[in-house]
Amino acid sequence: MTPPTVLTPPRLTWLRRTLRLVFRMFYGFRSVGQENIPRAGPVLFASNHVTYYDPVLVAIGQDEAMNFLAWDALFKVEPFGWLIRIFGAYPVSIERGGVGAYRATLHVLRQGGRVLIFPEAGRSDDGGLMEMREGVAHLALRAGAPIVPVRIEGAYRVWPKGQRLPHFHRPILVTYGKPITLAAARTTEVTGKDEQEAATAEIMRQLREFLAAPAERKIEDAA
Length: 223
Hints:
Layout: H1 13-27, E1 30-32, E2 43-47, H2 54-60, E3 67-71, H3 80-86, E4 89-92, H4 99-110, E5 114-117, H5 135-143, E6 147-153, H6 155-158, E7 173-176, H7 193-211
Parallel strand pairs: 1-7, 2-5, 2-6, 3-4, 3-5
Antiparallel strand pairs: 6-7
Helix pairs in contact: 4-5, 5-7
């Protein structure tokens, strides 16, 4: 897999603002916590995953460009494939596994880029948080990148898995949490297998704690 080019923010500013306005009109879209996003250096965004909208929701809720992984079959569905491509998507094949995607993500992070991944590796069947893979923690540790947890609320009511078309006028909230770093994982250095396993476990615990939003709360009362 050819490593993707890291996008520059000016390339997508107009499109991000336009889509933000559209989502506000149809879904009362809101985003909070942007002050938690580091301004410089590599950043790994880790979000829960409930709809096809999710990559766009995370992207338009803040002002910087980012890359993200997407199922390779989605690139064949136009104009959706065009949209996610210009938003920085690069493909991962379910059939061939994610080794190439992992390397491409590590490449972007080591260039100082920003990458969005979905640790659940698929959309939730019921809107709840599914089991997450530890690759997100491994990437953060290898690249020395903080993880910004991102919680998407309300989107499952808009476009649940199995439904062909989305509903409208149902509120969506995107929340960017405080970065999870090595210091936050209660370690400053990972030198051996035991330290890596401990750091991975702590990172995953903190990520799971943030992404598992309180059940059945009103989005208007959230954040």
